[in-house]
User: Which sequence fits this backbone?
C-alpha cells in the first residue's frame, strides 16, 4: 500500500484529454472579439452598453436561478452564460433600452436554458429565443437601427436608419423597382466591412468570417453547418436571381445583408441545439438556408435567420434519429 | 354577415361530421374488456410498483380476473386486506401471506469496516460491483452507492450519510421487492414481520472464512456456529461460514445474540434490557 | 501511411521504458496461478496439495474447445488450491505453489539459439499450440489454437501480426520485436503454415522506427512476410482497426476477422508459438513493462506467471510516494488494481503507476452535445446516446444501437469535455445485453 494515499479504483480509461467545456466557451468568446471590435468602431457607446448589460444580466440570472431556485452550485465558471450574453447582444440593435436587454436576458437564460435543466438540456438556442421574444414584444425598438459611425457617441438617442434588407422589403411592398432600391443600399465592399445598419454583431461579414475561421481551426465547430447554410442561400437566391434579376437581389447581397453570417457561424453552430453527425448537420444547415430565404423573399419579415434557426432546432431530435453515423462493419445485406 | 353565417355553418358541419366519424371508428374498434378488471383495479393501491410481478396495477387486475384461483397472486402493497377486497370483487378466495418487510443485512459502516481503496467511477452499485469487489476488504458487503434508494417508489429506504448503509422505514415499506432486485450483492432480504416490528437477524452476508471476514469487518459473521448450538428452536443454519436465522422458526428469544462473538446478530425494536442486580454490580466492578 | 479512417485519439505516448532491454525478474517465493487465465471455460486442476511440480509441467487442463491448458511456471511444491483475489478483487480458484529451485521439464530446450522452422503439418502445429497453453498475449487471452482452427466454410487469406502497441506507456512488444525479432518471424511462419496462408503482414506504429527497420531487414529472408508501418493513432492495435488499415476490409458487425479472411495475432503470441514448437516450451512466462510518470527507473521484465505484482514494483525501485493508482495494463484499457497482492497472469502486459495528481476523474457535467465522442468512436457508435440509454436502463434500445460492437477502447470517455463516464454506462449496457442474449438462447 502506498505510504500516504489509498489506491483509487475506477473503470478505464485512466487518463483524459485536455478538452473541457470552459475551453470551448472561452474559444467562442475569443472568436467573437473581431465582431465586437467592429461593433465598437461603428456603434461605439451603444455597443459597449448593450453588450455589457447583456453579459452581466445573463450571468446574474443564471447565478440567481441556480442559487435560489435550484439550490445548486453556481455554473457561471463554465462560461456559457457569458457566451449567451454576448450572442444576445449581437442580435439586438445598439440602442436597445437597458430594461429590454434585461428582459431578453431573463427569457434567454431563465426560460430558454434553465427551465429545461441548464447547459446541454435546452432544445432551442437561448440567445435566439431571447431575441425573438424581444422582437415580437417590442417590435418598434427592435427594428430601429442606429446609423453606423454617426451615432458612435450616442446610446438611446442615436440617429437611426434602415438595414439593407428592410430597405428592400419596404421598397418592394411600395412597388419600387429593385434597381432603384439597390442604389439606396451601401456598396458591397462597405457591407463586407460592416458599414451598414443592423444589429450589433451582424454587420461585418469580414469580422464574423475571421471568427469563424478561428473556431474551425481550433476545432470548436466544423464547416458543415455554416457551409451548408451559406451554400443553400446562394443556391436558392441564385436560382431566383437568374430567373428574374429585375425582381430578386443577387446571392452576394443576401450573403452580406442581414444576420445570415452571424447566424451561420455563431448561432446555428451552437452545439447543444444542432445535430450530432456531419450528415445531420448538412441537412440542418440546408433547412435553415431554405427557410431564411423563404421568409426574406416571400414572408412579411425582412430578415428570417432567427426564425429559421429556431424552427430547425425543433427538428434536431428527428434529424438525430435518422442521420446516424456509419457503423463500422455495416451488416452484409444478405447474411 | 353572410361570411359569419357561412363560417359558423361550415365549421359546425365539419366538427359534427368529424365527431360522428370518430364515434363510428371507436365503436368499430372497441376492445371488449371485462368490467370486473375495472372493479379490481379500483380496490388496488394504485402504486404501479411491479411488486406483484405484473406490469402495473391494471396488469395485476387483468391477471386476477383471468386466473382460475388467486392462490399465486398477491399484491404486497395492499397486503392481506387488499387481497380480501380483490377476492370479494371477483367472488374468489384470496391467499394469505405473512406480511414481510425489507431488511438490510450488513452493518459494515466505516468504523467497523475500513475502506481500503477509493472508488472513482459512475456512482451506482450495479456499475461498481461490475468493476471490483468493493472499496473494503469484504467483497460481499454494501457498496453504499444507493441503487436501493433510487429504485424505491415508496420513499421507504434512505442512505445514512454517516454509516454509509441504507436504512428501511418499516411503516413505509410495502415489501414490493424492488430494492432486493436492485442490490447487486443481494444484501436486502424480505423477512417475515414479527409482532411490534421486532427483528432478529444476522446482519452479514460475508461468505469468507472466519479469520478473513473478521479482518475485513469487526462485526462480520465468522461462521463459528456458537449461535447454532445455542438456539433451542433449530432456527439457525450455517452455510459457507455464514449463519442464517429462519424468521419463521425464530421466537425472538435473543439467546443467540448473547453468544455471538462479533455482535453480528442485530435486534431491532426491542425495549432496552432491564439490567439485573448482579449485572449492574459486575459492570461497576469492571469499571473500577 | 496507412491507418483506420474513422475515429481515434492521440493520447501522449509516454514510452519511457522503450530504451530498457528485457531483464529476467528473479523468481518469487511463491506463485499464485488462477485457473482462468484466458477467455472461455476455466481450466481444471490436475495437481493436489503436496505434489511437487517442475517448470513447464501441466498443472491444469483445458475443459472444452474454448479453454486452455495451464503449465507451472516454477518448480516446487503445491501449497494449496483455493480462491484468491484477481485484478478485480473478487476471489477466483487458484493454485498456490511454493518455489523451490528452478528445474524445468527435461523436454524443454533451454538454449537461447534460434531454431528455424521445423517441418510440421498444419494439424500438428495447431495441436501443439493447444497443448502448450498458448493464448493471445495482446491482452484478450483468447485461446490461440481456437483462432488458428479455421471453421468449415471459411478461408484464411492473410495473417496479420500485431506489433502496434498503441497503449501509452507499454513497451513490452517493442522490446520483444527488437530483441527477439527473428524468433517472431519463425513463429509467424509456423502460424502461416497452420493457417495455410502465404502472406503475413506485421503492423507496427511509426513511433517504433527501430523495430520497423530491424524487422524489415529480417523479413528479407522470410518470403511472404512483410512489415507495414502505420500512422500513430489510438486504437490502431484493435484487431478490427488493424485489419481495416492493412487490408481495407471491415469485419462485419457481430462477426469475426476470419469472415474477411484475416487472422490477427500479437507479436508476443507469435513468439510464444515459436518457443512452443521449436523449444517444446509451454507458455508460462511473458514480458511485462513496469513504468509510471513518477518512477525513476522503468523496466521490461521477463516474468513468470503467478508472480505477485508487489515483486515487480519492488524490483523497479518500489512504489513512488505520490502513487494514486496502479493499473494492470495500459492507461486506456487497463484495470485499476484494488490491491497489489495479485499475481501476473498470461494477459498482464504492463503495470503502470499513476501519480495522485492524475488519478482523479474530472467532475461530471451535463452532456453539451458537442459530438466529439461520436467523431472519435472507431466503431461508428454514438457514446453520448448509449450513455443516456444506459442511465434509463433501456437495454433493448442499446442492443439496437449496436452497443455490442463497442470494443471498450475508452476514446469516448477520454475526449469528453464534460467528463462524462460514457464507458461506465456502455459497459453496464453490454453486460445487461449479454444477460438478455444468453437468456434468449436458453
Assistant:
Amino acid at each position: 500500500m502506498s505510504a500516504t494515499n489509498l489506491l483509487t479504483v475506477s473503470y478505464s480509461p485512466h487518463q483524459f484529454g485536455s478538452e473541457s467545456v470552459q475551453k470551448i466557451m472561452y474559444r467562442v468568446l475569443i472568436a467573437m472579439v473581431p465582431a465586437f471590435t467592429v461593433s465598437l468602431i461603428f456603434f461605439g457607446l451603444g455597443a459597449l452598453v448593450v453588450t455589457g448589460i447583456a453579459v452581466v444580466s445573463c450571468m446574474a440570472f443564471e447565478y440567481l436561478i441556480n442559487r435560489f431556485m435550484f439550490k445548486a452550485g453556481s455554473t457561471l465558471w463554465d462560461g456559457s452564460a457569458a457566451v449567451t450574453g454576448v450572442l444576445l447582444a449581437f442580435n439586438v440593435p445598439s440602442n436597445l433600452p437597458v430594461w429590454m436587454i434585461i428582459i431578453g436576458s431573463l427569457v434567454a437564460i431563465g426560460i430558454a436554458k434553465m427551465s429545461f435543466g441548464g447547459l446541454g438540456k435546452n432544445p432551442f438556442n437561448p440567445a435566439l429565443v431571447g431575441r425573438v421574444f424581444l422582437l415580437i414584444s417590442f417590435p418598434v425598438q427592435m427594428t430601429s437601427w442606429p446609423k453606423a459611425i454617426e451615432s458612435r457617441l450616442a446610446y438611446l438617442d442615436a440617429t437611426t436608419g434602415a438595414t439593407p434588407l428592410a430597405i428592400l422589403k419596404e421598397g418592394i411592398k411600395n412597388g419600387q423597382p429593385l434597381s432603384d432600391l439597390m442604389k439606396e443600399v451601401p456598396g458591397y465592399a462597405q457591407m463586407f466591412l460592416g458599414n451598414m445598419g443592423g444589429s450589433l454583431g451582424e454587420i461585418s461579414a469580414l469580422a464574423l468570417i475571421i471568427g469563424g475561421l478561428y473556431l474551425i481551426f481550433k476545432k470548436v465547430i466544423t464547416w458543415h453547418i455554416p457551409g451548408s447554410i451559406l451554400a443553400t442561400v446562394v443556391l436558392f437566391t441564385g436560382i431566383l436571381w437568374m430567373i428574374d434579376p429585375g425582381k430578386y437581389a443577387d446571392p452576394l447581397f443576401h450573403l452580406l445583408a442581414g444576420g445570415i453570417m452571424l447566424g451561420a457561424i455563431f448561432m446555428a453552430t451552437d452545439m447543444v441545439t444542432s445535430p450530432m453527425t456531419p450528415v445531420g448537420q448538412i441537412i440542418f444547415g440546408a433547412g435553415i438556408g431554405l427557410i431564411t430565404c423563404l421568409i426574406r423573399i416571400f414572408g412579411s419579415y425582412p430578415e428570417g435567420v432567427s426564425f429559421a434557426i429556431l424552427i430547425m432546432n425543433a427538428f434536431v431530435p428527428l434529424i438525430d434519429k435518422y442521420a446516424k453515423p456509419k457503423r463500422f462493419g455495416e451488416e452484409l445485406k444478405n447474411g | 354577415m353572410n361570411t359569419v353565417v357561412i363560417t359558423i355553418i361550415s365549421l359546425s358541419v365539419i366538427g359534427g361530421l368529424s365527431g360522428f366519424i370518430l364515434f363510428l371508428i371507436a365503436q368499430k374498434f372497441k376492445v371488449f374488456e371485462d368490467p370486473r378488471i375495472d372493479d379490481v383495479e379500483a380496490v388496488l393501491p394504485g402504486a404501479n410498483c411491479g411488486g406483484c410481478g405484473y406490469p402495473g396495477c391494471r396488469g395485476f387486475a387483468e391477471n386476477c380476473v383471468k386466473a382460475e384461483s388467486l392462490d399465486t397472486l398477491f399484491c404486497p402493497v395492499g397486503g392481506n386486506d387488499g387481497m380480501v377486497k380483490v377476492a370479494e370483487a371477483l367472488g374468489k378466495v384470496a391467499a394469505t401471506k405473512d406480511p414481510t418487510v425489507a431488511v438490510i443485512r450488513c452493518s459494515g459502516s466505516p468504523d467497523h469496516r475500513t475502506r481500503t481503496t477509493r472508488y472513482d467511477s459512475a456512482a451506482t452499485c450495479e456499475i461498481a460491483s461490475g468493476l471490483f469487489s468493493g472499496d473494503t476488504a469484504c467483497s460481499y458487503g454494501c457498496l453504499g452507492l444507493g441503487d436501493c434508494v433510487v429504485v424505491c417508489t415508496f420513499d421507504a429506504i434512505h442512505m445514512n450519510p454517516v454509516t454509509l448503509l441504507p436504512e428501511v422505514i418499516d411503516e413505509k415499506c410495502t415489501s414490493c421487492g424492488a430494492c432486493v432486485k436492485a442490490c447487486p450483492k443481494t444484501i436486502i432480504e424480505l423477512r417475515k414481520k414479527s409482532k411490534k416490528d421486532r427483528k432478529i437477524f444476522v446482519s452479514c452476508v460475508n461468505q469468507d472464512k472466519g479469520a478473513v471476514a473478521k479482518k475485513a469487518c469487526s462485526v462480520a459473521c465468522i461462521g463459528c456456529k456458537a449461535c447454532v448450538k445455542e438456539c433451542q428452536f433449530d432456527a439457525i443454519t450455517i452455510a459457507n461460514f455464514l449463519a442464517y436465522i429462519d424468521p419463521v422458526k425464530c421466537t425472538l428469544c435473543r439467546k443467540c445474540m448473547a453468544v455471538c462473538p462479533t455482535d453480528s446478530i442485530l435486534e431491532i425494536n426491542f425495549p432496552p434490557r432491564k439490567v439485573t442486580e448482579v449485572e449492574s454490580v459486575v459492570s461497576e466492578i469492571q469499571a473500577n | 501511411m496507412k491507418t483506420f479512417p474513422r475515429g481515434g485519439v492521440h493520447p501522449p505516448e509516454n514510452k519511457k521504458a522503450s530504451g530498457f532491454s528485457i531483464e529476467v525478474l528473479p523468481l518469487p517465493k511463491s506463485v499464485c496461478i488462477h485457473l482462468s487465465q484466458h477467455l472461455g471455460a476455466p481450466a481444471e486442476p490436475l495437481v493436489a496439495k503436496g505434489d511437487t511440480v517442475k517448470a513447464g509441467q501441466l498443472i491444469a487442463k483445458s475443459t472444452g474447445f474454448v479453454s486452455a491448458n495451464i503449465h507451472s511456471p516454477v518448480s516446487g511444491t503445491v501449497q494449496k488450491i483455493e480462491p484468491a483475489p484477481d485484478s478485480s478483487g473478487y476471489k477466483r480458484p487458484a493454485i498456490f505453489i511454493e518455489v523451490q529451485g528452478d528445474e524445468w521439464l527435461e523436454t524443454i530446450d533451454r538454449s537461447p539459439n534460434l531454431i528455424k522452422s521445423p517441418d510440421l503439418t498444419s494439424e500438428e502445429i495447431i495441436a501443439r499450440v493447444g497443448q502448450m497453453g498458448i493464448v493471445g498475449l495482446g491482452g484478450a487471452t483468447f485461446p490461440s489454437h481456437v483462432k488458428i482452427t479455421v471453421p468449415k466454410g471459411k478461408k484464411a487469406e492473410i495473417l496479420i501480426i500485431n506489433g502496434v502497441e498503441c497503449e501509452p506507456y507499454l513497451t513490452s512488444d517493442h522490446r520483444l520485436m527488437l530483441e527477439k525479432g527473428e524468433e517472431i518471424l519463425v513463429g509467424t511462419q509456423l502460424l502461416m503454415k497452420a493457417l495455410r496462408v502465404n502472406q503475413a503482414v506485421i503492423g507496427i506504429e511509426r513511433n517504433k522506427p527501430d523495430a520497423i527497420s530491424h524487422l524489415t531487414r529480417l523479413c528479407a529472408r522470410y518470403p511472404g512476410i512483410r512489415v507495414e508501418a502505420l500512422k500513430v493513432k489510438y486504437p490502431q492495435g484493435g484487431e478490427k482497426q488493424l485489419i481495416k488499415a492493412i487490408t481495407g476490409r471491415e469485419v462485419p458487425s457481430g462477426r469475426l476477422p476470419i469472415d474477411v479472411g484475416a487472422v490477427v495475432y500479437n507479436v508476443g503470441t507469435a513468439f510464444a508459438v515459436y518457443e512452443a514448437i521449436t523449444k517444446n516450451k509451454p507458455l508460462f512466462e511473458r514480458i511485462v513493462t513496469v513504468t509510471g510518470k513518477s518512477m525513476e527507473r522503468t523496466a521490461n521484465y521477463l516474468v513468470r506467471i503467478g508472480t505477485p505484482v508487489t515483486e515487480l514494483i519492488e524490483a523497479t525501485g518500489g512504489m513512488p510516494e505520490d502513487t494514486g493508482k496502479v493499473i494492470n495494463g495500459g492507461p486506456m484499457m487497463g484495470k485499476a488494481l484494488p490491491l497489489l497482492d495479485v499475481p501476473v497472469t498470461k494477459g498482464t502486459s504492463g503495470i503502470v503507476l499513476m501519480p495522485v495528481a492524475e488519478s482523479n476523474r474530472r467532475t461530471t457535467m451535463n452532456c453539451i452535445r458537442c459530438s466529439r465522442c461520436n467523431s472519435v468512436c472507431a466503431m461508428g457508435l454514438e457514446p453520448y446516446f448509449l450513455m443516456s440509454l444506459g442511465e434509463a436502463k433501456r437495454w433493448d434500445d442499446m442492443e439496437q444501437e449496436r452497443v455490442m460492437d463497442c470494443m471498450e477502447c475508452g476514446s469516448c470517455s477520454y475526449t469528453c469535455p464534460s467528463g462524462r463516464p460514457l464507458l461506465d454506462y456502455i459497459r453496464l449496457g453490454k453486460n445487461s445485453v449479454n444477460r438478455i442474449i444468453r437468456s434468449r438462447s436458453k
User: Anything to note?
Assistant: Chain A has two domains: 21-141, 162-322. Chain A touches chain C through 42 residues (CB under 8 Å).
